[in-house]
Amino acid sequence: MRIDPETVLWSTPERERAGRPLLVLLHGYGSHEGDLFGLSPRLPLGPVIASLRAPLPENGGNAWFTLMDSERGNPPAENVDAAATAVLDWLDTQEYTSVGLLGFSQGAAVSLQMLRHAPSRFAATVALSGFLAGGGHPGDAELAALRPPVFVGRGTADTIITEAAVVRTEEWLPTHTDSTYRIYEDLAHSISAEELTEVSAFLATHLK
């Protein structure tokens, strides 16, 4: 599994990226790199933004891990690990002063798993309408010591993410991260204007 560099959407041309932080956008299931990229005007201007396309064609779009043989909200950890490793391998080919992640739904699950793979690598991690993959991970102990900043947001009307996945995430966050946890009344599986304003402020604080 790998990220196709030809499908990455960039907010700036290559000549303007040096010496700046990088914000990586990871879309949700059945979507594409143009989806979250539309949020770019509402995000901080300092970081270069790169929106990635998930490697697996599925459900009319692309997926970070298949749902064909997966329990909803509890995919096999190795599938989420494979997606996290693919993005980390792509990051190894980039230059940046610091790096942050912003993932939605499946992309949020991948962003949290990347944090477990590389606890000290990310200046800021944002996980929206997503969940933590099940099971322990070797990076959890280091995360608990470092407690990097993480913003997690979800809506009370989100029927896509299971209650078990929500509970798993809520229990893990405060013991492994310096978490900002926001719940938005009546928000479905989506991103609200209020949430995006808080995400932008979080990134402006931590991704420099």
Quickly name the level 1 CATH class.
Alpha Beta
Number of helices: 6
CATH superfamily: Alpha/Beta hydrolase fold, catalytic domain
Topology-level CATH name? Rossmann fold
**Ranges with pLDDT <50 over ≥5 residues?**
none
- Label the structural class: alpha/beta
Q: What is the number of beta strands?
A: 9
User: What's the overall geometry?
Assistant: globular
What does the largest sheet look like? 7 strands, mixed
Q: Oligomeric state of the chains?
A: single chain
CATH hierarchy: architecture: 3-Layer(aba) Sandwich
What value does the average pLDDT take? 96
* Cα-based radius of gyration, to the nearest Å: 15 Å
Reading the helices and strands in chain order gives EEHEEEHEHEHEHEH
Number of domains: 1
Beta-strand level of the residues, as a percent range? 15-25%
Helix content: 25-40%
Distance between the termini: 30 Å
The strand order across the widest sheet is 1-3-2-6-7-8-9
Outline the structure in words.
This protein has one domain (5-206): Alpha/Beta hydrolase fold, catalytic domain (Rossmann fold), CATH 3.40.50. It has six helices and nine strands. The protein has helices spanning 33-37, 77-91, 106-117, 140-146, 163-176, 193-206, and strands spanning 9-10, 22-26, 48-52, 56-58, 61-63, 99-104, 124-128, 149-155, 178-184. Strand 7 (124-128), helix 4 (140-146) and strand 8 form a beta-alpha-beta unit. It is globular, with a radius of gyration of 15 Å. The mean pLDDT is 96.
